[in-house]
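ENTRY TYPE: paired fold submission
RECORD: A
CONTENT: sequence, then structure tokens
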Amino acid sequence: MADVDAAIERLEGLTGTFGVSEDHVRLRIGLLRAQAKALEALGDIPRDTEATERLSFDPVVARALFDSVVEVCGTYGSTSDDFARLAAAVGREPEMLQPLVRGAVLRSDEKILAGLAWRLDVPAPTLLFVRRIVAAPMVIHAVREAACEETAGGTCPKCGSPPAMATLRPDDGARMLHCSLCGAAWPAGRLACPFCGTEDPKSLSRAGLEEHSARWIEGCQKCRHYLRTVDRRRLPAGEDVFPVVEEVAGLGLDLLAEQLGYHRRPPYAGM
């Protein structure tokens, strides 16, 4: 779990940083520790091989992780009542946990998610976030040995989820996309929208908070999606990039994207 320990250390270093909420830092650290514990608990559970079953769902591990996630979110989140209602609902109907979590992988209809959120009296974004956080370790366990073939597409070749961010490699500036669910990275075309595939330069734009910064957003005027980007060539030599750290440190870029009218991007749920 060396990467997890390193990510937690970097997260702790964000405490006190301008524009970064300490509660948000504590939230992510708590979630990351809970996910790492779940991944370790999955151990030697056999991996599913069918694409539609890429989830090593163990009810005991899933329930323990779910309980930890709602506890951490209830402690450091801004809507603790929502998490309390969600925990109570799963307590009454524990059988709902498996389809809820599997839906993060199978990308079930948004109307189904909205209907479930209404029934549970929990905002759909809250429900989406929790189920992705719970699903991530199981997806990682299921696909950790799968190959990441080179592709120009914007969908993760391991689990099929959309990217949460991009990095530019320090040696050649090539673009790497980072999965929002399993955390895998794969190479993709630089001058193309990873969401709709357009290569029209008039539709692609870039915006940042500071000139010459190593971090900015790349948006598409055609589909109105955007992606955070980190240029590793502009970082100190040897500095690692952790998507979960970027998720916390770069909220200002999300606010900028919102001001520019882009759609909300998928939150990073991986480890």
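RECORD: B
CONTENT: sequence, then structure tokens
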Amino acid sequence: MVSKTFIPKIRFKGFSEDWKDKRLDSISEQISYGLTVRPKYIEVGIPLISARELKNGNINYNIAPKISVKSYDDLSEKAKAKKGDIFLTKTGTVGLSSYVSEDFPIAVTQNIAVIRVTNERYNHQFILQTFKTQIFYKTAMSKVNQSTIMDLQLQDIRALSIFFPEKKEQIKISNYLQQLDKLIEQKEKKHQKLKQFKKAMLYKMFPKDGANTPEIRFDGFSGEWEEKRLDKIVEIVGGGTPSTMISDYWNGTIDWYSPTEIGKEIFVSSSVKKITQLGLEKSSARILPAKRTVLFTSRAGIGDMAILNKDGATNQGFQSLILKDEYDTYFVYSMGHLIKEYALRNASGSTFLEISGKQLSNMNIRISSFNEQTKIGNYFQKLDKQIELQSKEIQKLKNIKKASLDKMFV
């Protein structure tokens, strides 16, 4: 009989020995959880960490509630975290993990298990990365009590096993994954800064309420922007749904969008569901022209937008904007934040808020010359491409991280 070996699918050169499994309680000095009662909070004090403050392996001390030094001193030692401790959420959102790298007083709540490893044969960051693997998560979740609220008992955490290689390989793996984490974090910060910059520029490059000109303008353009009603700039078109009871209306070649498909991508070219020509004729939906239509959701999430890249139709959850000839598509798409603000202010409904085409058509907006529209539209399109590129790079790195977690651990 061939004995089973415990080695990962991918490993660094120079390492060949089998990994050995160890129970968490066999490598830990202490596994405990924090305080069970809610203390009095103060503005400035010692952070009290719960699952809410754990994200992407980090601890957000800024948003944590604070307790007084006296309240902290009165706590059990098990409710106090030290530098080097590993957090694992055990109640509610189970399985989030973080490492305490700070050397200052920290208190924890009962939904966090504090794992204190002092044995030098085991690398803290390796353990933390193991907690992020699907294998560990599935094993932990199989122990969860879901009778009322999801809860991982302390005795079950203590009994969880981790496979370890020798210390040098632990460090090699954890260093590689930490570098990936830092790169992802850097990209995410850059992505967030670009989004914030775009938001600021949107409000500066379109006239504010009561203003005739924007705060920032490209060289060569002057004079007041002209005020017009929205329906003088675009044709506002609602959608429709063919009967779902008649199969001849469905699974055709005409794209037919619902609001849930809008908002993630700037350009849309293919819908989840498609209708036939007969289905189009037997409903109030109509074909919307590509490149000249900005889809605008009008209910249950008002104001999500996308530019139609291929002729298509929508259900009745839209008031789509078909641009007239003298207006730039990306310019109108970029001023979507103003249209959304107006729609939200004027929406009505007893079951859910909705903006009608008639209400939307009454909106007054300021419009520049076509040349200035094009300049502004091109500027925001380039900015959006940069944001999109950052987003794709982040997702690529996250896919690499996921694959690494799947293949570099046992």
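NOTES ON RECORD B: The longest strand covers residues 250-257. The CA atoms of residues 91 and 151 lie 4 Å apart.
STATUS: closed
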